[in-house]
């Protein structure tokens, strides 16, 4: 991991800082983290993993279902919602005494099992797909919202056709 980070920083700084110096700094940081013990390393990376894993799981599942998905709105909505909700879990892992956030996170289904992000990701994927479909048909976000809210002509027919088309593609 250290060499990947050093390579990224080296390229980001446009090679103004010598690569060997950056590697030395990374090794020294690694030694100090190792001296503090494995538990401290786990404590440092837990919030990062709490945000990254749900997003990766959603992307993997949607990637497996890609041929059945009519547009990329599924990815955008699902990953966005999984990331937002998992960010709340990450904050609670660092500061568990934030009462309002703890109450909010406990309202999500499966939150007691660590899957608070699952239901919002599914809802976000469906809403993202509907928004992307509406924007593609009408060319504007307002047309996409018309599909969702039923305020435009034939909006219910469009959304029900979408669901029928989606079911047919799955079977």
Q: Which tags fit this structure?
A:
171 residues; single chain; mainly alpha; disordered C terminus; 0% strand
How would you describe this protein?
The protein is mainly α and 171 residues long. Helix content is 77%, strand content 0%. The protein is built from 8 helices and no strands. Helix 1 packs antiparallel against helix 2 (19-36), helix 6 crosses helix 7 and helix 7 (141-149) crosses helix 8. The longest helix has 27 residues, at 38-64. It is flat and about 55 Å long.
What is shown here, in short?
The protein is built from 8 helices and no strands. It is mainly α and 171 residues long.
Q: Please give the number of β-strands.
A: 0
**Overall geometric form:** flat
Give the DSSP E fraction (strand runs of 2 or more residues): under 5%
Mean pLDDT: 81
Q: What profile does the largest beta sheet have? A: none
User: What is the N-to-C succession of helices and strands?
Assistant: HHHHHHHH
N- to C-terminal distance: 42 Å
Radius of gyration: 22 Å
Low-confidence stretches: 155-160, 162-171
Helix % is: over 70%
Secondary-structure-based class equals mainly alpha
Task: Lay out the secondary structure.
Blueprint (H helix, E strand, L loop, with lengths): L1 H11 L6 H18 L1 H27 L8 H22 L4 H8 L11 H21 L2 H9 L5 H16 L1
């Amino acid at each position: 991991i250290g060499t990947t980070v050093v390579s990224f920083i080296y390229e980001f700084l446009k090679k103004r800082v010598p690569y060997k110096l950056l590697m030395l700094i990374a090794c020294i940081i690694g030694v100090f983290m190792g001296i503090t013990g494995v538990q401290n390393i786990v404590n440092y990376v837990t919030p990062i993993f709490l945000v990254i894993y749900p997003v990766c799981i959603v992307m993997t599942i949607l990637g497996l279902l890609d041929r059945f998905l009519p547009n990329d709105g599924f990815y955008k909505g699902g990953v966005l919602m999984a990331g937002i909700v998992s960010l709340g879990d990450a904050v609670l892992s660092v500061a568990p005494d934030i009462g309002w956030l703890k109450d909010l996170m406990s309202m999500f289904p499966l939150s007691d099992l660590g899957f608070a992000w699952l239901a919002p990701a599914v809802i976000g994927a469906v809403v993202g797909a509907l928004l992307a479909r509406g924007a593609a048909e009408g060319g504007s976000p307002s047309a996409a919202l018309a599909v969702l809210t039923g305020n435009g002509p034939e909006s219910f027919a469009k959304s029900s056709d979408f669901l029928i088309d989606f079911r047919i593609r799955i079977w």
